[in-house]
Design goal:
With 537 residues, this protein is mainly β. Helix content is 4%, strand content 43%. The strands form five sheets. It has a 30-stranded parallel sheet that branches. Strands 13-16-19-22-25-28-32-43-47-50 form a ten-stranded parallel sheet, with no helix packed on it. The protein starts with 5 loop residues before the first strand and ends with a strand.
């Protein structure tokens, strides 16, 4: 039969009543449209009116030239479930190398997915299965994914790889990676495998939001260690909140991250490391104009990269550990990172050091940064219990306390056999991080009873604006102001070179190191060589 260029799903057998299994009719229609496109070379569009369309027990293999367009988020909803096939992952659409032979020569071209919702809460497999996604397609050419709402999937929500000449825009992913323990592959809101098209993959991810997902909010990941990291990828104007990592670069070359917000993520707001499938960290990237604030761990976690990388004009603030931390994870690239640039960033109010170097750097540049009022985790150890002590899902109150504001930031509150991490505190109250991304409580075994005894550890020290605990060679450090105007101040030093660290060569000039809690500088290992001049202390 003749297939028009645009078809209405209801006219071809889909019901959308929230009960009928629409997957068989959906699959037949996708195949018919794909066959028609293959026959005449003219892409087709499947329009799906408002309704809840149940996709039960079987994913649909997607076809080139077939687009799927709904009536809007909350109007057109695809409900994924697998009650009759608990070993089968059920993405709405898939097309992969392993299952379907997807490749550069066997790809999906000219497809659009737009204006609908995917509810993955009904899929549960016996063990974690990374294929239990919302969308799971590989090798897409000239794709567009727009105005999608994907939530509660067992694995990654939007998990599409090798996207050439493609735009991902306005995609909202919430509570995806539901079955991910936090250590599995995938489990992200938006996870994009890269490298399959070669040295250049022209991909833009823009105005997307990722909240409460099991691993990353948004990440790109090189899929083979022997592939060259590709250039051409941009992440712009996105928001990542309450994920394990906010935005991650696990293997791109020249990733551009701009005008994005990364807040309240558990391990780090922005991450470069070897945690991806290939064990390769990103390099050559630029992060600029971003707000990286209030993350439970580090603002920026950085390592397993040969460099270079540049971070310019960002606000890195209120994080529960370090503002910026250079450190290498075991198993990944351990070579010295070269040409790391921190320029014109506002690094302030972090719980520990503003900048912490725990892995070697060669020829880094620290230019015109404002590093102030870090080391906020300055409150002494304390304990309590009994009358006036009460607990809620995400907070604890002790009416008799008198704590310094944010003095317990990032500490672990211990109550019996449970513990929770402090996000911030007032004089009498602690705000606590969820026990895992997407959770509504900080407690793994239930909210403690009123009056339960608690304890908080003391303050670590020193807590500096810049701490060097590894080898730094050839640094250029100019025009920075590192100080603490708080009363009382909590940033103990502007710069500390620990006994494990070293500073060799380079130039340190025209910096303002005055106005910290203890001294301007502490050198457990004196710097060697180079030029130091015109620094105010």
């Amino acid at each position: 039969m003749s297939i028009p260029l645009t078809v209405d799903a209801r006219e071809y057998g889909l019901v959308g009543d929230g009960t009928t299994n629409d997957q068989p009719a959906f699959e037949r229609l996708v195949d018919a449209l794909g066959d028609a496109c293959a026959a005449d070379g003219r892409p087709r569009t499947l329009r799906v009116p408002a309704g809840r369309y149940v996709m039960r027990d079987r994913p649909t293999v997607w076809r080139s030239g077939v687009s799927l367009v709904g009536a809007g988020r909350g109007a057109t909803c695809f409900v994924l479930c697998n009650p009759g096939s608990p070993t089968t992952p059920v993405p709405l659409a898939w097309f992969t190398s392993q299952q379907h032979g997807a490749s550069r020569d066997n790809h999906l071209a000219d497809i659009t997915f737009a204006h609908f919702e995917i509810d993955g809460s009904g899929v549960r497999t016996a063990g974690y299965d990374p294929l239990a996604k919302g969308l799971g397609m590989q090798y897409v050419l000239r794709g567009r994914f727009s105005d999608l709402y994907v939530h509660d999937t067992a694995a990654t929500g939007f998990g599409c790889d090798f996207l050439q000449d493609t735009v991902v825009e306005g995609v909202l992913c919430e509570r995806c990676g539901r079955q991910d323990s936090g250590e599995e592959m995938g489990g992200a809101g938006i996870g994009i495998g890269i490298g399959g098209w070669g040295m250049v993959e022209r991909l833009t991810v823009t105005t997307c939001t990722a909240i409460g997902n099991g691993t990353n909010g948004i990440f790109v990941e090189l899929q083979r260690e022997y592939w060259p990291p590709p250039r051409g990828i941009r992440i712009t104007a996105c928001h990542a909140e309450d994920n394990r990592f906010g935005i991650s670069d696990w293997g791109a070359d020249g990733l551009l991250v701009t005008s994005s917000t990364m807040i309240a993520n558990h391990d780090a707001g922005f991450d470069v490391s070897s945690q991806g499938t290939s064990g390769i960290g990103g390099r050559g990237g630029v992060v600029t104009g971003c707000v990286i604030d209030g993350n439970v761990g580090d603002g920026i976690g950085f390592g397993n990269t040969p460099g270079p990388y540049a971070l310019r004009g960002n606000r890195i603030s209120n994080n529960g550990q370090y503002g910026y931390r250079q450190h290498n994870l075991a198993g990944g690239d351990q070579e010295t990172a070269t040409d790391i640039v921190l320029e014109a960033n506002d690094i302030r109010d972090n719980a520990l050091d503003g900048v912490r170097v725990d892995a070697p750097l060669l020829d880094p540049s620290l230019v015109a940064n404002r590093v102030r009022s870090n080391g906020r985790r300055a409150a002494p150890a304390t304990s309590g219990g009994g009358e006036g002590v009460r607990y809620d899902d995400l907070s604890m109150t002790d009416d008799h306390a008198d704590w310094p504001a944010d003095g317990h930031r990032g500490k672990r509150l211990v109550v019996g056999r449970q513990s929770a991490v402090v996000v911030f505190n007032t004089a009498t109250g602690l705000s606590l991080a969820p026990v895992r991304p997407g959770a509504g409580t900080a407690w793994s075994d239930g909210t403690p009873a009123p009056g339960s005894a608690y304890r908080l550890p003391g303050a670590p020290g020193p807590r500096s604006g810049l701490t060097v605990a590894a080898a730094v060679t050839g640094a250029q450090m100019h025009g920075n102001r590192i100080w603490d105007p708080m009363r009382p101040p909590t940033q103990t030093h502007a710069m500390w070179i620990t006994a494990e660290g070293s500073w060799t060569g380079g130039r340190v000039s025209d910096n303002d190191f005055g106005g910290n809690a203890s001294y301007a500088m502490r050198f457990d290992t004196p710097p060697s060589g180079g030029r130091w001049r015109d620094n105010d202390t």
